[in-house]
Amino acid sequence: MKNFDIIIIGAGPGGSFAAKAAAENGYSSCILEKEVLSDNGRYKACGGAMAWELVEEIDYPEDKIERVFEFLELHHIDGENFSKKGKGAIVWRSTFDKFLTDMAVDSGALLKEKEAMINLEKKNGSYEVSTNKDKYKAKYVIAADGVSSPTLKLLGWPFFKSQDVVLTITKEMKTTKPYINSILGSDSLHFFFGIKDLIPAGYAWLIPKIDKITVGWGKQIDLIKNSREEFEKFWTLPYVKEALKNSTMEIFKPHLIPVGLRPKLYEENVFAVGDAGGIVDPISGKGIPYAMWSGQIAIETIKTCEIKDRLERLGTTYEKSLDRRFLKILKAKRIVRDKIFKDDENLKKFLRLWGKHRASEIVMKKLMD
């Protein structure tokens, strides 16, 4: 039995940032990851778009960036288009996740790859974790293993409400850089909306990388009747057909994304971070920075409560800290999300506002009212 202060399940952004923070705060930590990490390793069904502020915050290398974008082009299916200016980077998640995990390891965390967790149980105040290779023991557990979280399933935590989960379909289409630039532009991402004739609660996207286009479609799971047929509505749009002409599919993958919080985020020394807790922007689906920050906040919570000898307040301290940083805004966005997708009139109102304001500003200033 290998002993650690903290065991982190999952080496995504939330798990890696938690492990980095743990090591920097003097805790022994171990990341258990079921796959192998490398720049060309595990594929994540993710557009890979992130704000430039995050690139600068972690000093992400420019040679690992696929594209730099300056604009979001918002297409309504009826032909009305909107544009939003904002600089960001497109990355492959395999490369990005490997970079963050390397940061954690360099800080002192231990990484165990190709070790899938198969059992987790609490014994004598500690958690014993069994993998396909070994056994581990720790006082704290960080569940950073995604929306379906095997960790939280084993512990019997409740799953998300059906209206708080989106099913996405992602295809990676190989084409050429000159063709992408000629159709989609060299510095633009493209998003597609339409409640009545495309997606009642969700959107679709074309996100260009160097010589590939990430094609995505996402819809609230309780509203889906036939995902294949509904995805085809997007695939056959004239603009989309033109963009994907002569391209070849390299990857096809469905994936779930939360757009609302899990009913609980903490219990008995176990913290849910990132997608496992539903800590995602409910309007845009953006999750990478919130995963990273929630992982860090979980460790800060442990440190604070141990110093003050107030371990009974771990859960309330964690949620209050999340609220102060960003969770209060995400909760408000979840309420506004239903208003945005009420009808196409509301949706267009939001798209017009989004072209000039941050989504958080629209929500907190009640500009949709």
CATH architecture of the largest domain: 3-Layer(bba) Sandwich
What count of domains describes the coordinates? Answer: 2
Order of helices and strands: EHEEHEEHEEEEHEHEEEHHEEEHHHH
What is the mean predicted local confidence, pLDDT?
96
Q: Distance between termini?
A: 57 Å
Shape: globular
Oligomer: single chain
Number of helices: 11
Q: What would CATH call the class of the largest domain?
A: Alpha Beta
How would a textbook summarize the main sheet? 8 strands, mixed
Mind telling me the CATH superfamily name of the largest domain? FAD/NAD(P)-binding domain
Residues in β-strands, percent: 25-35%
Which residue ranges are poorly predicted, with pLDDT under 50 across at least 5 consecutive positions?
none
Number of strands: 16
Might you state the CATH topology name of the largest domain? FAD/NAD(P)-binding domain
Question: What is the gyration radius calculated from CA atoms?
Answer: 21 Å
- Secondary-structure class: alpha/beta
Helix content: 25-40%
